[in-house]
Design goal:
Elements: H1 2-20, H2 27-34, H3 40-44, H4 48-71, H5 78-95, H6 103-111, H7 116-142, H8 152-173, H9 177-190
Helix pairs in contact: 1-2, 1-4, 4-7, 5-7, 5-9, 6-7, 7-8, 8-9
Length: about 190
């Protein structure tokens, strides 16, 4: 029961934070959404910041679960799997009516320079996402799909940074075009 309650708090809080941001999310609101007793929060978390760090782990796990089915499609080329990841999220943000954005990107903008603990955790999260792209680009390099001269680490980091910028533009423009433009430019770079 203990870990289940903790998970319910994290899951409810993650949903609210994704929509409203960390600073606009109150502990009482999280407890109410989780449907757990008021004292539960501080039983499981030392502070709101401690809770927020757990939420980042939750978002990381959620991201990995969402893309793992694509990553496992080994019959597809590495570049095709990158394309499918981008298409998956383009479809998701259409369904979300161009709202929310990437929870890690949102938290990076909101908390990255306000809390050292958040900053450190968010750097690791972005590195995790970039690492997935780097692995796929390394595979593409081994199979001669991309230039042997490509710096796969820097290219992966660019993909992630460009994506986050495109999400900001998507949210303010209220349309999917920035994400589609991101994909187009990425594949202009990747295609030989």
């Amino acid at each position: 029961m203990g870990q289940e309650t903790k998970y319910k708090i994290i899951e409810a809080g993650a949903r609210i934070i994704h929509h409203k941001g960390y600073n606009h999310t109150g502990i009482q609101e999280v407890i109410k959404a989780a449907g757990v007793p008021k004292g539960s929060f501080y039983f499981y978390f030392n502070s709101k910041e401690d809770f927020g760090l757990h939420v980042i782990d939750y978002f990381n796990d959620m991201y990995l679960q969402m893309i793992d089915p694509i990553l496992q499609q080994k019959e597809l080329s590495a570049l095709r799997r990158i394309e499918k990841i981008l298409d998956y999220y383009i479809g998701l943000f259409k369904e979300l009516n161009y709202t929310c954005g990437c929870p890690i990107g949102n938290l990076s903008q909101e908390m990255g320079d306000l809390s050292e603990a958040f900053g450190t955790k968010l750097v690791s999260s972005v590195a995790l996402i970039a690492g997935i792209y780097k692995d796929l680009l390394d595979e593409a390099k081994e199979t001669d799909q991309v230039s042997l001269e490509m710096n796969t680490q820097k290219t992966a980091e660019f993909i992630v940074s460009s994506w986050h910028g495109s999400l900001i533009r998507m949210k303010i423009d209220k349309n999917i075009e920035p994400l589609e433009l991101h994909k187009q430019f990425i594949f202009n770079i990747l295609d030989r």
